[in-house]
């Protein structure tokens, strides 16, 4: 546990010393949301409606931080030789460095989500506390499995530039699919769509919003889907950690 905490402190200092990640994780989605809803500035948007409208935006924030901060960063560490050094310091156990990185990126993702929530509050200033509390609770449920899942990228034997380009193209594809799809009204269909991490995050937020309003059969089904996807993603991620590749493809180790 002490090793994980040390890695967490080290990685957190590095992450928050860089300004570029905030550009794609907060500035981009916030500006896009404001542009798309510019006509409603000065009007009060109902709390529940605001949460539903921003589900995919938060999905993008969480998944983009997870992909770039966990999957691609682990590959970057591998190619630079740092990952092997971290593992040696940890006595040959991969989980300490990986969990330390996951926790630090989760903190960054949480700060990004709250900053986005503060931007949203201009559409409903009276609900600012509720917005921040809601995002805090749903963030934990949405982020943990997604951040674990992206560890699988570091298992793939591919070069950094290739995986970085492909992963971010796939990210926008997942965002489009989640935004464009319609409600299937059945368990299997929603589970299938939920295998898209952006859609999973959206389902967590939508389920949370629905639970605040009323609890019925459909809401309980949504909750069951979220639980199943949480277990699937988390299991895949945990199984991937011991298989993280240590040897660089660009230089001899």
What gyration radius follows from the Cα positions, in whole Å? 19 Å
What is the SS-derived class? mainly alpha
What's the total helix number? 11
Mean pLDDT: 89
Helical content class: over 70%
What does this structure look like?
It is a single chain. This protein has 253 residues and is mostly helical. It contains eleven helices and no strands. Helix 4 packs antiparallel against helix 8, helix 6 runs antiparallel to helix 7 and helix 9 packs parallel to helix 11.
Short descriptors:
253 residues; mainly alpha; 76% helix; 0% strand
Summarize the structure.
This protein is mostly helical and 253 residues long.
Task: List the SSEs and their pairings.
Elements: H1 2-17, H2 20-36, H3 47-53, H4 55-80, H5 82-89, H6 95-120, H7 128-149, H8 160-180, H9 187-194, H10 197-213, H11 217-240
Helix pairs in contact: 1-6, 2-4, 2-6, 4-6, 4-7, 4-8, 4-10, 6-7, 7-10, 7-11, 8-10, 9-11, 10-11
